[in-house]
């Protein structure tokens, strides 16, 4: 194998990096978020509402002395609200240099995906919630929808969260 | 023309930069030379008693080199300018007059055009052809068999957020991700309400050509062989591009698959 071919093979192998994704469920759909952004997963705990906060904010929780804002993920995704169950979890994530919690129906597992296994979502729809979707992947016959957490909120909304 | 204007602007900036930089550099060089010569002169001057000796003051030295330098610099500038001007002329000549004179209005946005495949080019526009008929909420629709990508039974559809209402979601079929269209909603958005939705019983997905788009349908009716005269072909361009024509005997629509794929890819429905 020539040097050029070896280099090319290395590049290709390097390009198909494997990423880990924490998967969670919302209304029977499975979503994935980059594991590097996940700090921890908590059982559902009482969320104190904050008067005057935006409608996508459920409230705040006390996490070892720190105040963490919890986002209503269903609301952000345009889904109908649902009752909290024993499987509900608050996923503590770091995005846009902020630590927030997102309430999900359940957390499933951590999956490994190669970048070649990720396809772009169909480019239709101009709804703002379409920007969350980073890609989709076929995982053992199930569709995994990969979410870009940094786009969960707009810049103004991130700023607003800071002030809560 | 806009490229020409842009290139003209670039040329102007280039030329002005040339003139500014060279002139400044030459002025600095001349200044330095004058200083050196002045210092040399001062060094040569002899100080003596005014009564006894006459101080020989040499007449100011004419600086032929400075003048020569200036002349050279100017000549260089002029040469560069001429070369740039010539190249500009060449550029202008390269662009045909008609193109240069034709100017698109600045605010005009090009109208989106549906992918237009000449009707004559389509296989089914010549001789007999077969079409598959299927039913959606009481509406019969036909698709040319040659443009049918496949038929699948409806399986689990994964909904995606932020998509149009008629976009039901993504269905996984082996290695393929099929974009599922709620056909009734796409075709009859004005009738689509909760009652209507509840009555729907989608069972199959009709694949459009080689695309990843699939139309939901309730029942598969049959396939029929059609003659060219059996169809009232759409002739009015721009109106209902998704419709190839109307099948007279069955009083139903024959889909123009390519146009439909184009509309779906652009996120448009029947109202587009």
UniProtKB/TrEMBL annotation, chain A:
Domain CheW-like as annotated: residue spans: 18-158
Residue ranges of the TM segments: none
PROSITE patterns per record: CHEW
Signal sequence, start to end: none
Entries under InterPro entries matching the protein: CheW (IPR039315), CheW-like_dom_sf (IPR036061), CheW-lke_dom (IPR002545)
UniProt cross-references to PANTHER family, sorted A to Z: CHEMOTAXIS PROTEIN CHEW, CHEMOTAXIS SENSOR HISTIDINE KINASE-RELATED
Protein name, as recorded: Chemotaxis protein CheW
Organism: Rheinheimera baltica
Organism phylogeny: Bacteria, Pseudomonadati, Pseudomonadota, Gammaproteobacteria, Chromatiales
From TrEMBL, chain B:
InterPro entries: CheW-like_dom_sf, CheW-lke_dom, UCP020479_CheW
Source superkingdom: Bacteria
Domain CheW-like: 128-266
PROSITE patterns per UniProt: CHEW
Pfam families in alphabetical order: CheW
Protein name: Chemotaxis protein CheW
Organism in which the protein naturally occurs: Rheinheimera baltica
């Amino acid at each position: 194998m020539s040097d050029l071919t070896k280099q090319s093979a290395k590049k290709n192998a390097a390009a198909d990096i494997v990423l880990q994704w924490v998967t969670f469920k919302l209304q029977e759909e499975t979503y994935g978020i980059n594991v590097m952004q996940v700090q921890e997963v908590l059982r559902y705990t009482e969320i104190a509402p904050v008067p005057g906060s935006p409608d996508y904010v459920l409230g705040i929780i006390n996490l070892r002395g720190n105040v963490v804002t919890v986002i209503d993920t269903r609301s952000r995704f345009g889904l109908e609200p649902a009752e909290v169950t024993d499987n509900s979890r608050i996923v503590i994530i770091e995005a846009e240099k902020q630590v927030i919690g997102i309430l999900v129906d359940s957390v499933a597992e951590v999956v490994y995906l190669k970048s070649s296994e990720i396809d772009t979502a169909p480019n239709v729809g101009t709804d703002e919630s379409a920007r969350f979707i980073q890609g989709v992947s076929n995982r053992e016959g199930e569709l995994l929808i990969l979410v870009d957490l940094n786009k969960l909120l707009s810049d103004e909304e991130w700023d607003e969260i800071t002030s809560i | 023309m806009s490229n020409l204007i842009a290139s003209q602007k670039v040329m102007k900036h280039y030329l002005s930069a040339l003139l500014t930089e060279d002139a400044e550099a030459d002025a600095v060089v001349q200044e330095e030379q004058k200083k050196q010569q002045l210092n040399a002169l001062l060094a040569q001057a002899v100080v003596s008693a005014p009564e006894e000796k006459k101080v020989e003051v040499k007449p100011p030295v004419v600086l032929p080199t400075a003048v020569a330098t200036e002349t050279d610099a100017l000549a260089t500038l002029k040469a560069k300018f001429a070369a740039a001007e010539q190249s500009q002329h060449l550029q202008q000549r390269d662009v045909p007059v008609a193109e240069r004179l034709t100017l698109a209005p600045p605010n005009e946005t090009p109208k989106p055009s549906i992918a237009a495949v000449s009707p004559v080019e389509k296989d089914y526009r010549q001789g007999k052809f077969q079409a598959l008929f299927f039913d959606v909420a009481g509406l019969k629709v036909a698709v040319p068999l040659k443009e049918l990508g496949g038929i699948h039974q409806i399986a689990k559809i994964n909904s995606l957020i932020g998509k149009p209402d008629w976009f039901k979601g993504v269905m996984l079929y082996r290695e393929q991700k099929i974009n599922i269209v709620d056909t009734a909603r796409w075709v009859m958005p004005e009738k689509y309400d909760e009652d209507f939705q509840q009555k729907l019983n989608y069972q199959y997905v009709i694949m459009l050509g080689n695309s990843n788009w699939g139309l939901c349908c309730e029942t598969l009716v049959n396939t029929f062989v059609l003659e060219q005269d059996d169809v009232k072909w759409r002739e009015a361009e721009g109106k209902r591009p998704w419709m190839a024509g109307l099948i007279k005997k069955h009083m139903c629509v024959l889909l123009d698959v390519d146009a439909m794929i184009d509309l779906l890819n652009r996120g448009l429905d029947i109202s587009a």
